[in-house]
Amino acid sequence: SMQNQPDAAQFIDTFSGGHRYIFDYLVDEVLTQQSETIREFLRKTAVLSHLHADLCDSLLEIRDWRLETTQSPISNPQSQSILAQLEAAHLFITPLDDRREWYRYHPLFADVLRQQLPDDTQKAQHQRAVRWFAEKGMLPEAIHHALAAHALDEAAQLIEQAAHPTLMRGEHQTLQRW
Fold first, then answer.
1. CA distance 171 to 169
2. Rounded distance, CA 79 to CA 51, Å?
3. How many degrees, rounded to 5, is the angle at CA 49 between CA 119 and CA 12?
4. Which tens digit of pLDDT belongs to each residue from 80-104?
5. Which of 3, 116, 118, 155 could in theory staple to 146 by disulfide, Cβ–Cβ 3.0 to 4.6 A?
6. H or E stretch including 167?
7. Helices (H), 14-151
């Protein structure tokens, strides 16, 4: 019966970036087909588990970012239009809210994107995310990125700020995990 058959999404969810054929397919058939602008956007936002246009702008340092290709159909290089284009192209991105302010990459696709980034670039992108989340008062997310960047002093300061509210919400395991 059809009910016993896993659908394609469930099937691909069982893979990880370590599966060579899937990795090769995503790199060769998906990433190389994108404009350099889109590839740069994907690479520079790969460290994020949740994408927001303003956050992506921050990671891209969009104020200094220029389109370097005429190939791109994007008329406005702001992250919101890029996110909308990625969603319209069904490029492994899912909206997380009805207002389409927050998105996420498919975990396998995000793994592939991160594997394209040198460690120092990943660290720098995590640091940019720390600043953005901290400015927005989103301390758990800032802590996550500080730990991922191995910015332990900064992580400790953020944990200190977040400790009391986290305990008051009864999230002892979160505090212990940090």
1. 6
2. 10
3. 95
4. 889 988 888 888 899 999 888 899 9
5. 155
6. helix 152-168
7. 20-25, 36-45, 53-60, 79-88, 107-115, 119-135, 139-148
